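Possible regression after last week's pipeline update?

I re-ran a chain I had predicted before the update to compare outputs. Posting the input and the new output here so someone can diff against the archived version. Not blocking, just want to make sure nothing changed silently.
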Amino acid sequence: MCPKNLKKAHDHLVEKKRRIREAEDLKLKKQRAMYDQKEYLKEKGKYLGLVFSKRNISIKVLQHVNEFVEEGDKLKHCLFHNNYHIKEHSLILKAQVKGKSVETVEVCLKSFTILQARGKNNQPSKYNGEIRELVEANIDKIQAIAKKNSKVKSIKTVQYAEAI
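New output (post-update):
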């Protein structure tokens, strides 16, 4: 038996199937994030807790793979989907102004340089210059942690704050 309004019935079923697929995708994404978190801790665990700030800008290492998902969603860029959480020789930092995420920063752990700093829609925020300066001023902290070959067993917060 054919429905009275075939297009409406078709659109309803397509939408239903899309919601089911999104739910399945979300479940797989969560499972993948749990697996990736173990690898992330193994590779980047010694950097967790690193924070530096100046005035209203605070920059910290992303602590959990779920933060890659959240930051990517907030700033509308590919942070999680392009696997930056498992990218070798790469450290991802979150820059916040007054507690609000404005950019993510990728630092190369080989050259200790900023590879990119991206805000919403992959565009630089109005704080881009200040964020880059703050990261560059504290790159020695990242280098010092990198030189320590010991793995961190418990995460301790290390705060570096610059005077105003």
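Follow-up from reviewer: compared with the archived run. The first strand starts at residue 50 and ends at 54. Marking as no regression found.
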